[in-house]
């Protein structure tokens, strides 16, 4: 197929037949992260120009879902989990366990390819950070964030997300 040799990488650039052929011939892995943790990571990386987390969140809320950064756009708008049947969904915080499973399924040597993740420490750190950052937000901002990410929260098991409360 000619699509194997093209430089295009976005599925939207292909016709329906080509998309179906591509998606049917690859193992599809989706990496997902709690939307609130994504916001925290984006803020800490300095991708927003706001002086506080609360003002950064307000900028995100004001931008809505259109013309917004990929860093905080809802996952369901980015990866279309209702349209694409992913073979694996890997949750942030469980990389070591889930990537080990994927490597074993692919017949690859797990120990030599898998970096030393510390999932428990990552989860604890983000839980603590989430508590701190969430406390900075107004009740209105919390409600608006929950509404903005409602489909992500419905599509993926983010039951411990602060936005799910």
TrEMBL record:
Gene Ontology cellular component annotations, sorted alphabetically: Golgi membrane
Membrane topology listed for this record: Single-pass type II membrane protein
PANTHER family, per database record: CARBOHYDRATE SULFOTRANSFERASE
GO biological process: carbohydrate biosynthetic process; dermatan sulfate proteoglycan metabolic process
Family label: Belongs to the sulfotransferase 2 family.
Protein location: Golgi apparatus membrane
Keywords: Carbohydrate metabolism, Glycoprotein, Golgi apparatus, Membrane, Signal-anchor, Transferase, Transmembrane, Transmembrane helix
Keyword Transmembrane helix annotated: yes
Pfam families recorded: Sulfotransfer_2
Catalytic activity, EC: 2.8.2.-
Molecular function, one GO term: sulfotransferase activity
Coarse class of the protein's main subcellular location: Golgi
Protein name: Carbohydrate sulfotransferase
Domain of life: Eukaryota
Record keyword Cell cycle present: no
InterPro entries in alphabetical order: Carb_sulfotrans_8-10, Sulfotransferase
């Amino acid at each position: 197929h000619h699509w194997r040799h093209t430089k295009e990488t976005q599925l939207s650039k292909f016709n329906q037949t080509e998309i179906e052929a591509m998606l049917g011939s690859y193992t599809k892995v989706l990496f997902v992260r709690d939307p609130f943790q994504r916001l925290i990571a984006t803020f800490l990386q300095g991708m927003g120009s706001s002086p506080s987390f609360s003002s950064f969140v307000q900028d995100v809320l004001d931008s809505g879902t259109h013309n917004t950064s990929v860093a905080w756009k809802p996952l369901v708008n980015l990866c279309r989990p209702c349209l694409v049947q992913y073979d694996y969904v890997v949750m942030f915080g469980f990389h070591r366990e889930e990537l080990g499973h994927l490597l074993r399924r692919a017949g690859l040597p797990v120990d030599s390819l898998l970096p030393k993740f510390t999932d428990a420490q990552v989860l604890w750190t983000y839980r603590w950070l989430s508590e701190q950052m969430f406390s900075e937000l107004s009740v209105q901002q919390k409600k608006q964030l929950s509404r903005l990410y409602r489909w992500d929260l419905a599509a993926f098991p983010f039951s411990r997300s602060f936005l799910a409360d």
